[in-house]
Specification:
The structure holds 3 protein chains of 3 kinds.
Chain A (H helix, E strand, L loop, with lengths): L1 H27 L4 H6 L5 H11 L5 H13 L13 H36 L5 H14 L2 H15 L15 H35 L2 H8 L4 H38 L5 H11 L2 H29 L6
Helix pairs in contact in A: 1-12, 5-8, 5-10, 6-8, 7-8, 7-10, 8-10, 9-10, 10-11, 10-12, 11-12
Chain B lengths: L2 E11 L4 E12 L4 E5 L6 H8 L8 E9 L2 E2 L5 H7 L4 E4 L3 H4 L6 H12 L4 H14 L5 H5 L8 H13 L5 E5 L7 H18 L2 E6 L2 H7 L2 E6 L2 E7 H6 L4 H8 L13
Parallel strand pairs in B: 3-8, 3-9, 6-7, 7-8
Antiparallel strand pairs in B: 1-2, 1-4, 4-5, 9-10
Chain C lengths: L2 H26 L32 H37 L1 H15 L3 H12 L3 H28 L2 H8 L4 H9 L4 H24 L11 H10 L6 H23 L3
Helix pairs in contact in C: 1-2, 1-10, 2-3, 2-5, 2-8, 2-10, 3-5, 4-5, 5-8, 8-9, 8-10, 9-10
Classes of the chains: A mainly alpha, B alpha/beta, C mainly alpha.
């Protein structure tokens, strides 16, 4: 309980630090958002009126205070380029990106764990060489390229899905998940090969330890030794790695959204960066930071549950 | 005879070489016997013990001879038959109690595991038995130990836990492979006393493997001296200690530090 | 060395050598001008004349790939240099001196380390705008934390060795201890981190330029070639395949080397 409390506190501090860093960096960079919004129509009167409207005439610390209390209430301010609040602009995109990331994580875990176990079982057969080679190659293919390959094979050649025909989740959730399968697979593929390789290595390492001999000496069958003793120990480093992988998967979804034209956080982040729509960028970064920190927290707690030796 | 080992040979095949680690080992044990095997590291004593416990790998190893335990030849019976004997008739404890325990399972779970495999007992009954087993190995607070993890205990406590988990199934034979080597001298003596008590009260035969002849002398009646995979000397412990025939055995005796605590019987 | 390790090392060396040859080739002279458009060769397929075919403007893809490899290698080298240099400085200072500065910087470092480098780089690009040099700065900054963490760990290990204490007793200054006794010992760990860094830098650069945040058009970059070719994927799928394979090839080489060197 104390451990959870400590972890949650660190998480909140990290998020606060991130929000301070993000807000001040975007406030201090040169350039006047009001001026760029008005463009050629700028006159001194209109400029100062707009600056007042956007709150730019107040000192930066005061603006941070207003922004931050707003964020706590779920209000990220107004977008510069879209005439609506950031929150309403991002709502749907958040859900879309979350569906994609969660699907990628599920695919990664569901495939890589059995695969890693299978590879460990076959580690002294000829198949091992094939597995290692294929794994090494898949690991090297960036998700946006595997996304294109998947589009070529399953979209254009086999016609299992129509590239670009994204279905929003609120109009048809099943169809949406169906469309998202290949993007999620593209994100998951390199992670699958990394996780399964790690699991294979740790299983082999754990299988050589002395407690395994003890387990055999009690009359356990090989399968029981594996599932009751080896697997739990072998999963501990895998869980740590999965924690880092979750963050990577969230970042990966930003790129892969682009490949499959999925209108999630990644797409709007890119348009906001080119359009210098700072409130939207700030909000997205903070949200992504929140997801990353949250997934780290979940992994920490899982880790704590799996490995009794950790007492922090 | 409970255990009859005849012409036991073990060869390890490497990629390009074959090494014979145990050569023609013969001995017998009756119920309630305590037999010691001494020798330096690499003498084949641990290999012989592992062979009897059925814990040698089935790959890259060649075993010949017979290990007959209660009329079953452990060297050529099926895995299934062997598993029925492992952990119910023959139990084993090892040198490093910390590494021999699963780091992420509670002590209670590990002590009970033998019962889970070999009996149909209910959970509560198993727990009761486990607590009794922990009490029998003279652990002060069995309930607390039951709920702790291996890393939370001291070395001596861990070895007691190992003994409890080995004895919970009331085996006929307990194989102890250097069970005290990793422990402090005072703890060593306590563990040896505990093994003695178990042998006396429950009639469990003990095969005690050690590199320490004086320790064997305090516990065992009979002893085998092994060197390079061969049995070089065997007989009553006291005789061999007083009157060693082999230079190797003399060497082992001379290697014992002159500590009154060690030399129990010699003084 | 085990046989499988040897195979990995040799394959990694061969692939990396090929990549470097491509980069040098792209530096000196490409078979075709990578910028000249030839409407007659629009979407030309694979042939002896154009080994990778041509793109939507009839530009030779192979020539553009060579220049793209050059650009990717240049950017990755700069990124790894910035990350390794500043990471080593920060890691050495915090690891050697400890104290509140160490505590403070490592807290920030760990927080940054939790974020994927592409995300960090996007933040920096959001601040300074996109372009080749902005990308180098953005990724360079994003690469500092991992180097700092590794170097700090190593320095902590070395600092507590007996001989460092002995040298201290002789009155050596901190600066001398760091330069003479600690930095040379970081060689192995730095070498393997730099190779792994290259692996990650190529991946990040390709990803960023795929997103349009890198080298500006019409200059060729592997990632941008992929995204441009994707528009025409129905008519000319191979135009996307070749740059992608080259990116994967580069990453494969570095990851094979990273697996074997220094471990």
């Amino acid at each position: 309980m104390k451990y959870i409390l400590k972890k949650v506190t660190t998480m909140l501090i990290t998020l606060f630090v991130v929000s301070v860093l993000v807000f001040f960096s975007f406030s201090l960079i040169p350039g006047n958002p009001a001026l760029s919004k008005l463009g050629t129509e700028a006159t001194p009167e209109r400029l100062s009126a707009l600056e007042h409207e956007m709150g730019l005439d107040k000192p930066v610390v005061e603006r941070f205070g207003e922004w931050f209390t707003g964020v706590l209430r779920g209000d990220f301010g107004r977008s510069y380029s879209y005439n609506q609040s950031v929150t309403s602009l991002l709502k749907e995109k958040i859900a879309t990106t979350l569906i994609l990331s969660v699907m990628a994580i599920v695919i990664c875990v569901v495939i890589s764990l059995p695969l890693g176990i299978f590879m460990a079982r076959k580690s002294d057969s000829k198949l091992d060489i094939v597995f290692s080679a294929v794994n090494q190659i898949i690991m090297s293919i960036p998700s946006f390229f595997s996304g294109i390959i998947l589009t070529l094979i399953f979209g254009i050649t086999l016609k299992l899905f129509t590239p670009g025909a994204y279905v929003p989740y609120h109009s048809d959730l099943i169809k949406c998940i169906g469309y998202m399968f290949f993007p999620a697979l593209a994100i998951a593929l390199p992670k699958i090969s990394m996780v399964s390789k790690l699991l294979k290595d740790t299983v082999i390492k754990e299988a050589g330890k002395e407690y395994v001999r003890t387990a055999y000496s009690r009359g356990n069958a090989t399968k029981a030794v594996f599932y009751r003793h080896v697997l739990g120990n072998a999963l501990i480093p895998v869980i740590t790695f999965l924690g880092m992988t979750f963050a990577d998967i969230i970042a990966g979804s930003i790129i892969v959204e682009q490949v499959f034209s999925v209108p999630g956080l990644g797409r709007i982040l890119l348009t906001s960066i080119s359009g210098r729509d700072y409130p939207v960028i700030e909000a997205i970064i903070l949200l992504l930071a929140f997801f990353v920190v949250l997934s780290n927290l979940i992994v920490d707690l899982l880790y704590h549950k799996f490995d009794p030796r950790i007492h922090v | 005879m409970m255990l009859k080992v005849e012409d036991l040979c073990i060869k390890i095949h490497d990629k390009n070489s074959t090494e014979t680690v145990v050569k023609d080992v013969d001995f017998t044990m009756k119920r309630g016997d305590i037999l010691g095997i001494v020798g330096e590291s690499g003498s084949g004593k641990t290999m012989s013990a592992l062979a009897i416990a059925g814990l040698l790998s089935r790959h890259n190893m060649e075993k010949s001879g017979n290990i007959i335990f209660e009329d079953i030849n452990l060297l050529n019976c099926s895995r299934k038959v062997l598993r029925k004997i492992q952990g119910s008739e023959i139990s084993m404890i090892f040198q490093e109690p910390l590494n021999s325990l699963n780091p992420i399972k509670k002590i209670g779970w590990q002590v009970e595991e033998g019962l889970k495999i070999h009996t149909t007992m209910e959970r509560l009954e198993r727990k009761e038995r486990a607590l009794k087993a922990l009490k029998d190995v003279e652990l002060d607070n069995p309930e607390a130990v039951y709920n702790s993890y291996p890393h939370e205990l001291s070395g001596g406590m861990r070895q007691r836990v190992m003994i409890a988990s080995a004895m919970i199934v009331s085996p006929k034979l307990l194989i102890a492979d250097e069970p005290t080597t990793a422990l402090d001298v005072t703890i060593q003596a306590q563990i040896v006393e505990l093994l003695k008590k178990i042998n006396k009260e429950r009639g469990t035969a003990i095969l005690f493997i050690s590199h320490d002849l004086s320790l064997v002398n305090t516990l065992c009646e009979n002893v085998l001296v092994m060197k390079d995979g061969l049995v070089v000397e065997s007989g009553k412990c006291a005789d061999i200690f007083d009157n060693p025939r082999e230079a190797y055995t003399k060497g082992l005796i001379e290697a014992i530090p002159h500590n009154p605590f060690y030399n129990g019987k010699v003084i | 060395m085990e046989r499988s390790k040897k195979v990995k090392l040799i394959t990694g060396l061969v692939i990396t050598a090929l990549v470097i040859i491509m980069a040098v080739w792209g530096m000196i002279k490409t078979p075709y001008d990578p910028y000249s458009m030839d409407t007659s060769a629009k979407f030309a397929g694979v042939s002896l004349k154009h080994v990778f075919g041509c793109d939507q403007f009839g530009r030779d893809i192979f020539s553009r790939v060579l220049v793209g490899v050059r650009e990717t290698m240049f950017i990755s080298a700069c990124v790894v240099f910035i990350g390794a240099f500043l990471g080593t400085v920060i890691g050495t200072v915090t690891g050697y001196f400890g104290g509140w500065l160490d505590e403070f910087l490592m807290r920030i470092n760990d927080a940054l380390l939790a974020f994927p480098s592409v995300l960090l780089a996007l933040v920096v690009i959001g601040l300074f705008g996109s372009g080749k040099y902005q990308l180098i700065v953005a990724l360079g900054i994003a690469f500092i934390p991992s180097f700092a963490r590794i170097v700090r760990g190593e320095v902590l290990k070395i600092r507590n060795l007996d001989y460092i204490n002995a040298v201290k007793l002789y009155g050596a200054s901190n600066f001398r201890i760091i330069v003479v006794h600690i930095l040379p010992n970081l060689k192995t760990v730095l070498l393997s981190s730099i190779i792994i860094g290259f692996n990650n830098a190529v991946l990040a650069e390709a990803g960023m330029s795929y997103l349009g945040m890198g080298v500006a058009p019409p200059n060729p970059s592997l990632g941008r070639m992929l995204s441009e070719a994707q528009t025409y994927i129905f008519t000319s799928p191979l135009a996307a395949v070749f740059p992608g394979i080259v990116i994967a090839f580069m990453i494969l080489g570095f990851s094979l080397l990273g697996d074997t060197v220094g471990k």
